[in-house]
Amino acid sequence: MTDNKLPENIENIDPSSMSTIELRKTHEKLWEIIEEKELINEDSISEKKSIGKMRNLMKKIIKERVDRQREEVGRSPE
Question: Considering 14, 19, 25, 71, which has the largest number of Cβ atoms within 10 A of its Cβ?
Fold first, then answer.
């Protein structure tokens, strides 16, 4: 079981300032936490907000990863 708590200051995380490794690890961790939270299937408003915040951050991270890969010669987005 993972530590499925919302990362501190999630609203302040800036994917553009993260390294490629940090982006990948954060993406993987967020996915793991979201998956676990959804399996628990709690319908509380706070859980839904928590998952929503994490999904929004994941979207930003995915966009950043894709943008960086586009900039690399000879690579296609993941």
Answer: 25
CA of 25: how far to CAs of 6, 29, 58, 61, in Å?
15, 6, 11, 10
pLDDT in tens, the chain (78 residues): 345 555 677 888 899 999 999 999 999 999 999 998 888 876 788 888 888 999 999 999 999 999 998 887 665 555
Q: Is the pTM of this model over 0.70?
A: yes
* Three-state DSSP string of the chain: CCCCCCCCCHHHCCHHHCCHHHHHHHHHHHHHHHHHHHHHCCCCHHHHHHHHHHHHHHHHHHHHHHHHHHHCCCCCCC
